[in-house]
Structures are given as structure tokens and as C-alpha cells.
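Here is one chain, start to finish.
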Amino acid sequence: MEKLNNAIYPCLILKGKVAEATDFYIDTFGSGKVIQTNPIVTFIALSGQNFMLLNDGTASVPNATFSFMVVSENPEETEQYWNKLIEGGKDLMPLDSYEWSVKYGWVQDKYGISWQLFTGPKNALSQKFSPSLMFTGDNAGKAAEALQFYTSLFPKSSVEGVWEYSGDDGDTKGLIKHAQFSINGLIATVMDSSAAHNAEFNEAVSLVVNCDTQEEIDKYWEQLTADGGQEVMCGWLRDKYGLSWQIVPKIIGELVTDPERGPRVLNEVMKMKKLIIADLVNA
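Its structure:
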């Protein structure tokens, strides 16, 4: 079984549509493959980055508060992605030339997942896909605080650039228009938006954190559920901004796909909120 490379990666809930979506995303973006699959979960790699596609879970539907920035080095590539993603989907910002990109568009695909297609140069640290978090509603104005919170929690973290609203560009002066940061090797972005989006973070798209030890699980669980966060179940939690995380042992895939032990491991997972590695190993 091929192992997952990324310490933190996204999970998309696509009940009843995982097989179809797997083919769609690999066809759309190319340079993709299936890493692991079973009736509940499929792991795919797109340009070397892991995505979990989950065939179970909440009834929440994706929205634009959690999107993916997709970097292309030429406008033709951006347009190619757009033409595939827009089929059965809708545009949130038209594909056009903007001050920050010669060709950019924000599209919600037919599964509800949102993609920001950006044309620009790649540097040595760039990823093809970067989670992009939009702080709206009661969260509007909290992107700067979230930047500090996330980068203080995870290793190999940094804030790599902050662009604030001027007050003449559609939102409150001083709020974050765009900021890039990294947590344990994952590059992501945040922005504030005071517009009436009628949307907030939910479990439809989450971030999975692979942990080597129980100490790691305990640390992330305690800090991410603090100050208004919430324990959910089966290793899921919501942080104080409502963003969903899955805090799991790195060996979880190996355990649940074991033909003999897997059903017992899954039974143990279903009983837990925070996952206990020893109980799963001994199931």
C-alpha cells in the first residue's frame, strides 16, 4: 500500500460521488493517481499533494469559505482548468485579467468545491493547490488572529506575506485581503470578507493532521478545541473559528485497511471523540 506523504491535507465529503469525483479531478488537473481506496474513503494525489475523498459523514455542503488556490504558470493552463470545472458548476468571479493575475477565476464545481484559478510564477516553495480560508460573518476581521494561532500551533510554520485592504477596494481598511502562510509544510492562504456571503466553515471540507504520537494528538486536540472550539467524534473537531479538523494517527490508514483487524479498528474509532492510538492498535 502506498503511503501518504503530506502531514496535513484536505478532506472532501462527497457522499455517493467519490468514484465519479476521483475520475473528474484526475482528468481535470492531470498528474494525478489513486493512492488508496475502499468503500468509505479514497485518497488521491494531485501533483503530488494528497486529498481525502470521504463517502460518509455530515450532510453539510461545501461553500466558498473554504476554496483551493490553484497555481498555473500560463493563461492557457488556467483556462483549461476553468473549462472543465465550470461544467455543471458556476462562476464566483469571472475568468478574466485582474491586477493580481493575468488570468484568474473563482469557480464552484458540480460537487460544490470551490477553486481559485491563479496564473503566476511559481517559486521553490509553491504548491499546485493551497487551501484558502475566507473569514466571513462573525469571523470577518479574524484572519490575522487565525494566522498567528495556526502558525504558533504547528511546526515548520511561517507567515509569508500579508496584503491588507486599503479601504478603497471593497472592504474595511486594515482587514486582510490576502495572506499566505505555511503550517508543517502546507502552504495556505486567508482573507477577510465583510460581504454577506451567508456561509461559514463546516465539515464538508476539513483539514486532516497526521500525527506520529499520542502526545501530538493530545496537543493539537487540546489547543484546537480551546476558547470556543468543539469536540465532534471519530477524531473530528471544530476550532474556535468553526474550521473542521481531523486529528488522526499516521498509521490510521494501515489499521483500517487491514483485512483482519480493520473492522475492529473502525468500531473503536466510532466510540471515540479524540483518537487513542493504543486502543486502535490493540483492537
